[in-house]
Amino acid sequence: MSRPDLNLLVALEVLLDAGSVVAAARRLRLSPSAMSRTLARLREATGDPLLARAGRGLVPTPRALELRDRVGALVQDAEAVLRPVAAIDLATLERTFTLRTSEGFVETFGPALLARVQAEAPGVRLRFAQKLDKDSGGLRDGAVDLETGVVGRSMGPEVRSQALFRDRFVGVVRAGHPLAKGRMTAVRYAGARHVGVSRRGADRGPIDDALAPSGLRRTIVVTVGGFSTAIALARGSELVATVPDRHTAGLREGMHAFALPFDGPQVTVALLWHPRMDADPGHRWLRRCVRTTCAAVAEG
Fold this sequence. Notes:
Helix content: 25-40%
Number of helices: 10
Number of domains: 2
Distance between the termini: 59 Å
Strand content: 15-25%
Largest sheet: 9 strands, mixed
CATH class of the largest domain: Alpha Beta
CATH architecture of the largest domain: 3-Layer(aba) Sandwich
Order of helices and strands: HHHEEHEHEHEEHEHEHEEEH
């Protein structure tokens, strides 16, 4: 069996992105007739029309839609493999990196990360973008260089990840709250009034699932979209917020935190990036800075 022409992958990526033989030919600097012949070869190789006529234009077939993201990732991986890794002079590097992360991460790890970056590369600037959802489209389109978060099913299959630290959940109340005194039990915890955290506004989450075997249920009187908001509400009320320990350490200053009196969930916070940046020297250096900083702060 003959090996397929891998050069067709580049043409396929451009065709599926452009949705037009003429536009694809222009981007690849080919004639329309040459691009049409390439499309014919792709149809023969895949056994699918890929682009079908609809009115005056072309629309992708279901097979083409299935292939689009996979082909793009393959081409980007190949480009990363063939791109030479050049030496980098951190003393003269001038570049702005965008990190999409939560307010809690910036509060806890931001100062140490900034100090490390400025000490090694004074010309580098960091831009922290607030993470309001789990969509990683910014990594794919290049608007975001790095993200932090818990890897989930909503993450694109082409996104790279590396664990930064393991985090557990703790309960948090204002200073002087009745739960700040005495031994914490599951009954005392469940009997308090709580602020829930859910981006989707759900009434139940992993904390409730972990509490359920005890036959207890929290009373959630308000639900918010993020941990920083939950902590702010708990700071000024009688409510209990249940938040990741390390991830929110900087937001909880002056408050009372306690270990959950049951087997609560744990999460692994990871560093996320797009594979096309794997071999980029500046990006590799920044990833190292984030990993080293998180390890140092988490251990300290």
